[in-house]
Write a structure and sequence with these properties.
The complex is a heterodimer. In chain A, 74% of the residues lie in helices and 0% in strands. By secondary structure, chain A is an all-alpha fold. The longest helix of chain A is centred in the middle third of the chain and has 34 residues, at 192-225. The model of chain A has no long low-confidence stretch (mean pLDDT 88). Chain B has 2 domains: 2-71, no CATH class; 90-312, Alpha-Beta Plaits, CATH 3.30.70.20. The chains are: A mainly alpha, B alpha+beta.
């Protein structure tokens, strides 16, 4: 298969050579990862007593990270899936990043559940003694389906690129990489029939991963929603979590676009237009997300149900700054920055995305923790750590390790496949020629 | 598969054997023949009889053919512990008018279940519903709900509801996801955050009815002293309470007792306006409360002569 020479020259250098900077960055992340492994060993050895979790706040950072990473995986479902179905032209340079975010965060997310489980050695009980009544069993089914689906979708988008790289004789990469391209391209040679098959498969998978993603995140929300706990027992939680997930996925995509554009010199391919388009998407989602947040808290605040009042009271006192940051600044600021054209620079949009992403993480935190600190029967204990949750260094270390693994996997994949899909870009070129 | 079936037959026929004896409560051990069990109810038998002592102390005769040694004691124990005692429906009534935070129930429970000091399966709360209402002490065991949220959400069936109403945790099945702890609206469950360091003497097996020994990374909670009930004895907290606060009994027999007096459950409910904690949650608890009226002690007596770490708990207690 032949591809446009310019595309190949621009997008393949990162597969061939690796800068010292890359190695240094990678080893920094590797160091974080090592600290995380040490923390995990300590936790397994000493028990969960090394975390900040206690009998009231039984879920802490780990669950927050779990729902956060699962949410990031929406990036692929929305940007890639939806835009693929609607044949949106500008999606092409960013589609691969979105798909990679999906698969990588889907791999990392469940690990945080593993950290949270008291008996990791009995994890397989979920499969040999499953009870379908439990939302956790729904989650096991949904997440594993999602992982398989998204992986297939990602791979389908790789095949053509693998074929191009296989046939690009001047590509000066290690022999094992060449061999890898040959195997993974599955003999794709670009015939009309093959193209049609591949396109059909991708369209079907695009539709499917959107549906699966909605199910996965709804089930995640129902883990909280089905309980009787004040603040969690809410009918809006399913759609609320879905929209929050899309919000974070879109935010992360903007951040990665900025990083790869800068580091891999892709200014020509990822332009301001892409930042504005994804940014506008982020703003629209922020509007929905803000509306859901407002609606949920308004109904809790306006009524007089005692437990709801105690919870709202706690959010507006003890958690005041976090609440304001998560639910006001994190939603309004990105919207304002992107809504006004004069603020729309690549840097501003990226800053808006960073704020959105951090705020969403905090939003998850103040959904999970304050509710657990507000049980129906008041917590009457003399130990402060049993009344109020404070994460320990072990939880911080494992959180940072999760982020590091995300970064490392992204860095590794970008050395095996171009971070911008050559075949997609080429298709656009051909279409433009035909016009 | 085959193995499992044989244990099941063993269990059910043992029960029917005991029912024949007229003993209300089934028992696992048969005095005189340790580790033996009576099975094969329809077996015509050899005609040779052996005398055995039944759990309630009656001397009985059993055909020799029907006696088999018990294999897989743990498996049988766990199988039995999943079914519960046939024909029973256990309930508890807690008289708030008599409670003065003596904490004898907590101590007896911790001792009986080899619990670490910070694990309280029965917990004492100092509650005040509103600034215009009076504070009162509320002992809270597990409510053994008829619609238990903890059982619904458990992904592996480690926590389960028995026919006699008791909710238990099998800590050899529990994966420690703590979903049951967020599911329970009464904070009735505790987690083993570290190794509790409890070892059983050799020859003893884990029994979900006592939940001994506790295991790191798993959940524990009040078991209504299911092991005591099997022996036709009252739960530890009931017998330990110096005030006779806690009544225990059977809904089907309509009787509850605190060890000193035995009363009609329905009459007690009617006369003293019994209620359940947070009825609106719809979990249908099997623990009932009698309102704190005509109290035997002022609420403050509960804070006298207590350790500092106990009294410190209640420093922020107030209207809520």
């Amino acid at each position: 298969m032949q591809a446009d020479r310019k595309l190949l020259n621009d997008l393949t250098p990162e597969l061939v050579q690796t800068s010292t900077k890359w190695y240094v960055t990678f080893f920094i992340f590797l160091a974080f990862f090592a600290v995380g492994i040490y923390a995990l060993i300590l936790q397994i050895d000493k028990g969960h007593i090394v975390t900040g979790m206690r009998d009231n706040v039984v879920w802490g950072f780990y669950i927050v990270n779990f729902i956060f990473f699962m949410g990031l995986s929406y990036s692929g479902a929305l940007i890639s899936g939806v835009l693929h179905l609607f044949h949106t032209g500008w999606r092409k340079p960013v589609i691969r990043m979105a798909e990679l975010i999906t698969v990588i965060s889907l791999i990392i997310g469940p690990f945080f559940i593993f950290f949270c489980i008291g008996r990791l050695d009995r994890l397989y009980f979920l499969f040999i003694h499953p009870r379908i009544q439990s939302p956790i069993t729904w989650d096991v089914i949904a997440i594993s389906t999602d992982l398989v689906g998204c992986f297939i979708y990602l791979y389908l988008s790789f095949i053509e690129d693998f074929a191009i790289l296989r046939d690009f004789s001047e590509l000066n990469v290690a022999p094992w990489k060449k061999k890898l391209y040959k195997i993974l391209s599955l003999g794709f040679s670009g015939t009309e029939k093959q193209r049609k098959l591949l396109l059909n498969a991708r369209t079907i998978m695009a539709a499917m991963i959107i549906a699966i993603a909605i199910i996965v995140y709804s089930v995640l929300a129902w883990i909280f929603g089905v309980t009787l706990q004040p603040g969690w027992h809410s009918t809006i939680f399913g759609p609320y979590f879905v929209i929050a997930a899309v919000f974070s996925g879109t935010g992360l995509l903007i951040i990665l676009m900025w990083i790869f554009r800068k580091v891999y010199h892709l200014e020509e391919y990822i332009t301001k237009r892409h930042f504005v388009n994804v940014g506008v998407l982020l703003t629209i989602i922020a509007a929905f997300y803000g509306y859901f947040t407002f609606s949920d808290y308004l109904t809790k605040w306006y009524g007089s149900i005692k437990m709801d009042s105690i919870l709202i009271d706690k959010l507006f006192n003890q958690y005041y700054s976090l609440f304001i940051f998560a639910n006001y600044i994190g939603i309004l600021l990105p919207g304002i920055i992107i809504a006004f054209p004069k603020f729309r620079t690549i840097r501003n949009i990226t800053v808006a995305a960073i704020i959105a992403l951090l705020a969403l993480w905090v939003n998850r935190y103040i959904i999970v923790i304050p509710t657990l600190e507000t049980p129906f029967l008041p917590i009457q204990d003399f130990r402060t750590d049993w009344i109020k949750y404070t994460p320990t260094w072990v939880e911080w270390a494992l959180t940072l390790a999760g982020v590091s693994v995300f970064a490392m996997l992204f860095m590794l994949v970008s050395k095996i496949v171009p971070i911008i899909s050559i075949s997609e870009m080429q298709e656009r070129d051909q279409n433009e020629v035909m016009k | 598969m085959k193995k499992k079936k044989s244990t099941e037959t063993g269990g059910s026929s043992r029960r029917s054997f005991i029912r024949k004896l007229g003993a209300g409560v089934g028992a696992v051990s048969i005095a005189g023949i340790p580790g033996a069990s009576v099975i094969g109810n329809n077996n015509p038998g050899s005609g040779e009889k052996i005398k055995l002592l039944s759990p309630d102390g009656t001397l009985v005769e059993v055909d020799k053919e029907n006696i088999r040694p018990v294999k897989e004691t743990v498996a049988i124990l766990k199988e039995e512990a999943r079914k519960g005692l046939p024909g029973r429906k256990f309930i508890m009534v807690i008289d708030l008018a008599k409670c003065r935070n003596a904490r004898k129930c907590v101590e007896a429970c911790q001792e009986g279940h080899m619990l670490p000091r910070d694990h309280e399966w029965i917990k004492l709360y100092l509650l005040q519903d509103d600034k215009n209402t009076a504070p009162y002490w509320l002992p809270r065991p597990c409510f053994h709900c008829d619609k238990p949220m903890c059982v619904s959400v458990c992904p592996v069936g480690a926590t389960y509801k028995r026919d006699d109403g008791i909710v238990l945790v099998d800590n050899q099945r529990c994966i420690g996801c703590k979903f049951c702890m967020t599911g329970c609206p009464y904070s009735a469950r505790v987690f083993n955050w570290k190794d509790p360091g409890v070892k059983l003497p050799p020859g003893h097996a884990y029994d979900p009815e006592t939940n001994i020994p506790p295991v790191e990374g798993t959940v524990g909670k009040c078991v209504f002293c299911a092991d005591k009930l099997r022996k036709n004895e009252l739960p530890r907290c009931v017998t330990a309470c110096p005030m006779g606060v806690i009544y225990f009994g059977d809904l089907l027999e309509d009787t509850v007792t605190n060890g000193e007096e035995t009363v009609r459950f329905s009459k007690l409910m009617k006369d003293l306006a019994g209620y359940r904690y947070r009825e609106e949650l719809g979990t249908l608890p099997n623990v009932y409360y009698l309102p704190p009226i005509h109290r035997m002690f002022p609420v403050e007596t509960g804070l006298e002569d207590t350790d500092e770490e106990i009294s410190k708990r209640y420093k922020d207690a107030g209207p809520r």
